[in-house]
Amino acid sequence: MATQPTPSGHLNAAGAVVFTRRLPLTLAQGWAAVTDPARTARWIGPWTGDPSTGTVELRLTAEEGSPVSPVEIIRCEAPHLVVVTTGPGGWRLTVRIEDDDDAPTDLERSPAVRISLEHHLDDAESAASVGPGWEYYLDRLVEAEAGRDPGALRFSPDYYPALAAYYRALLGG
Known about the structure:
By secondary structure, the protein is α+β, with helices and mostly antiparallel strands. Helix content is 29%, strand content 28%. An eight-stranded antiparallel beta sheet has the order 1-2-8-7-6-5-4-3.
């Protein structure tokens, strides 16, 4: 990575850490980027299963050994919102896809969306590793959607441990 990543996470009123990326996509494209298994395969990993059952399996291809994680779909309101539980201890994640109000509205400019991921983190030490992890994955999303190679990003040391102190301090550690 050419430059050091900058942490984007902040605490919202509910105490969740919110990570946001702006992408030059329509709402439908933003939704597909985070829900279509062919698109998710490019930045986090493909998923399999039937979402109508309420559970799919996500293969985390950027993790060592490409582990499979069950993902329970709690709420889905296409093309704006998906809430899932996954990961160690049943992390609750909320992903929002919204029109970017700051984006140009004239027809000669590209549309833009904000993709936000909210994660309630229990303690400063968890935040020190999970925060950099979400920064890494969301930057991989940006790279994939821009047609670049997400594999060129280095989790270690560019994201972790580089961003660990920020997230530890964000949760009071």
